[in-house]
Structures are given as structure tokens and as C-alpha cells.
Task: structure prediction
Amino acid sequence: MTERHTPPTPPRRRRGWAGGLCLAAAALLAVLAGGAGAAAPADTGAWFERFKTEATDEELYRFLYAMPKGGDLHNHLSGSVLDDWFYELALAQGERGYHFYTRVRIDNCRPYGGDAFGPDPYLLLFLTLQESSWQQLSPCEQGEFERLEDLDAGQRRAWLDSMVLDKAHEGRDEFFQTHWQRMGDLYLNPYFTADALVRNMQAFGREGLLYLETMIGVLGFLNPDGSRLTPDEVAAIYRERLREADAVATGVAVKLQVAILRFAPNAEEMLRTLYAFVARNRDLFVAVNMVGREDNDKGYPLRFLDTLRALRRDYHGVRLSIHAGEVDEPNDHVRDTLLLGADRIGHGVNLITDPDTMRLMRHGPYLVEINLISNLLLEYVDDYAQHPFPEYLRTGIPVALSTDDRGMWDSNLTDEFFVAVREFNLSWDELVLLSRNSLSYSFAPPPLKTELLSRYALRLANFERRLAGNPAVVLATDARSHGFLCRRYALCDLAPASPETEETP
Ligand SMILES: [Zn+2]
Result:
């Protein structure tokens, strides 16, 4: 992976845009002379080109953080729990009777055998179980676990780090084969999931998002006594949580997708179950997705063609966004996935190897959900120079930026925009197009989509107006940077903007 093979990209040594602010503002005002208040997009574009040449990385980040954004269309909720929420949210479920234990040592209680890659891997530290599961273990194995409440500082740090790709040696295998398994019963807790959803809405709201379409679990969730909730009971918990004041106050609209593990032996049965589930929970759920390693050939797209055709005889209006082309080898997965009926493609990294399908998608109705940080950390590109995103964007294939499993990269949507601008020199018009695409290609019902697009247009006009009045005021003072940008771009622990920056006319 890149951080192993390629040194981090150094911060740009620039004098800083704030230092040249008077000049920049004067130039901008000159451009806008005679304007009636709102800057025309072309003027913002000209200003942004100058800003990019002068701004430090920190100034660019603060600008992108404050910039109005559309939605995040490719987000796995269980992979989007940020480090500083994890422990608190897990402990908070004690109020509902859930208590968690995690494996902090291995005492060779099962010395012979054990499934290293199954749902119950023995040789895996920091596997997290709820009390009812822990009680099923032998006394020897029970002794390997500590209650989450009782972790010492070192264990707690290690438990949190065990679910982030923050080391040079960690990559695709670590992510696919241990991160999800470690979450264990937390992955199957409906209240932890619902609380994590609201935390994401709050954080995305601060970043200027209007919409979140996230993949969320509903199958196999656990009551405190270990009995299972039905998918509809889980949906009711999500619905109720989204009605609470703190969720509503975010102003972020939410729709949900359900996902099937594409290579599971019973994937067709799960597809039938979840397709029917979405059809009877349309107020909140909009789509089915297919996830999991594409280099596992048991999950090739055409496996699901007959099942989907049968489902389409009985149900209407269930949308499909499907991971496709998140793989190293050239193949027809994107083309085959469009045949399945998908309107959106997750990742599409290897679409670049399929010219016929690329031509089909130019200026077309299908969108590719681009995940720049994920693709680098999971080694689908070794360097951003290999990423096909600019080719798609600039040949008219609809694209939007999204965060995938941001908790596991420690990142946010601003980070994706930062990478895109820094690596591919995006223009202002391209930034706006990406945000607009993330709403117009969403699966939000038409009235909500219309409302979101008009809210975005209003926010954008307001932002451009403020920019025209005083460019300094659009640098976010409350931006927080995350681990990925710190590790790769040396943009760490953003301090509040200096008073001079805020007050410079
Ligand atoms: Zn994904």
C-alpha cells in the first residue's frame, strides 16, 4: 500500500493565502466591481484558481470544510464510527442492558484448531462480545476478556487502534479479515448503530452536508439476552432514533441502504429477504447494495441476475447501488453490474480497463461513487497518479466523492475533497458538480431530492456571496482534521484560525 511504498506527500510550502489576503481580496473585488452582491460562478472560479496557488494546506482545508456540500452516497455506517465516539457509545448501551467484553490476551484455551477467518476467530485480540455471548465461553476463555469499562489506558488505546488502518503494514487483509470481526457483537447492536448514525449526521452537518445515504445492518441484531431482533424491529429502532431532537437538529436528511455479503453461501436468500424488507420499509430504506471482496469469485455480479429478475416480477421501486470494479484485475464487473439493474456503481476503479462500458457511461444516467482514501489504503492504487477519478470526471462520467468506511481510515468528506483538489487540481465548477451529483444521483424520493437541490443552491449562492464580500470569512474556524490527513499530508491537529485571519478585511 502507498504508505508502505511511497513516502507521505509533504505539506506545501507556501507563504499562505491569508498573508496575501488584501491583494487577493482587492483583486476579487476588482473582478466583481459593479456586481449586485452575489458573485457569478465564473468569478468564484477565477478566485479559486488564485487561492489554490497561494493557500497553505491548512487554508485549503478550512475553505473546503466550510464549503457547502451535497451528500455522502457511499458510506458504511458500521465502518464510520470515529475513534472518539467508539468507546463512549459502546459504554452508553449499558443503560439498555448491554455490557461488552473484549479479548485482551490469548491463553491458549483453544490450542488446536479454530477458524482464523470465520465469525468467531480465536487468535484475534480485541474481539468484542456482549455479556450473553461472553457467558457462553469456557471459564478459560472468559478469563481472556476484560469488560470495556475496566480497560486500562493502554488497552483502551489498543482496542481503538485495532479498528483503524493507521499503520504502514496494515492494508486490505487487515481491513477485510479483522476489522469487522473485531467489532463482534457491537456490529449487531441496534442502539449502538443508531447512535453512531446520529453522530455521523452531526459531524457531516458541521461539514456542510445536507444528505447521508448510508449502508446499515438489520439482520441478526441482538437483544441483551442474546435473542435476535427481527429486521423490522431494528428498523423501528432506527426510525425512533431519527425522530429524536438531536438527530432532527442536524438538518441532515437520511435514507438507508441494506447490504448483502456478495460471496456468502446464502447470498441469494439474503438478497430475497432484504429486497422484500426494503419494499415494506420505503419510508426510510431505499436500496440494496452488495459488498465484500470482489477478489472472492463466489460473489461475481452475474450470480445474482436470475434472483433479481425474479424479485423484479414481484416488487417495484427498490433501487440498486452495487460495489463493482473495486478489484485489481481488469474484468467486466461494472458492465455486468449495470445489467443487474444498478443505477450507481461503488468504486468503479477498474472501469478504466473496460472502454466499451466507459463510453456507455459518459454523460449517462449511472454514477460512480468515488472513494479516494479507501482505494489508496486498501491498495487498489499505490499512488493517486494511478487513480482513474480525473479521467471519469473529465470525460463526463457522472461521479461523486464519498467516504466508504471513514471510521477505519479516520477521515471525513472534507478530506476526500482535499485529496481531490490537492492531487487533481479540481476547479470550483468541478467541486460544485461533485456536490450537485451527490444529490441528483441520490436515491432520495423526488420531492426530497428537489428540496435538497434547492437547499444546496441557496447555500452555495450564500457562500459565494460571502466569499465575494470577504474571502476570509469562508475559512472554517471550527474545522477538525483527522488521522489520514495527518499521516499523509502532515496536516495535523488544526488549531482555531488566528484572530488576524478572521479579522483581516
Ligand atoms: Zn464500500
User: Anything to note?
Assistant: Residues 1-5, 20-41, 499-505 have pLDDT under 50 and may be disordered. The chain is about 45% helix and 10% strand. Residues 74, 76, 291, 323, 346, 404 surround zinc ion (CB under 6 Å).
